[in-house]
Amino acid sequence: MNAKIEKLKNPASLIGGLILVFLGAYIAMATQMSIGSKDKPAKELPATTRVTIGVIILLIGGIITWTHYKKQD
User: Fold this and answer.
1) Contact 63, 24 (CB under 8 A)
2) Which of 14, 24, 40, 50 qualifies as a cystine partner to 58, CB 3.0-4.6 A?
3) How far apart are alpha carbons 73 and 68 in whole angstroms?
């Protein structure tokens, strides 16, 4: 019982890592993505840029999640 309580002491890194994994996958699989502001028209990003950004975010989330599990062992 004590081991389960200790694992739940710091769930922020696990939750943050999983959110980054899902966000990275969502961005990598998106068909359209644009960046703009109120004053300027939106500029659409090419597919390679979307996939690159998504994979980078996905890897960061995976590393955070992996280190969380590694610290628990």
Assistant:
1) no
2) 24
3) 9
pLDDT tens column, 15-35:
888 899 999 999 888 888 887
Return d(Cα 64, Cα 15) in angstroms, integer.
10
Query: Would you mind telling me the total number of residues written for the chain in this entry?
Result: 73
Name the more confident of 2 and 62.
Answer: 62
pLDDT at 72: 61
* CA-only gyration radius of the chain, Å: 17
Could you tell me the two tokens for 47? 């597919």
Query: Quick one: CA torsion of 16, 20, 21, 26, rounded to 10 degrees?
Result: 140
Domain limits of the chain?
A: 28-73
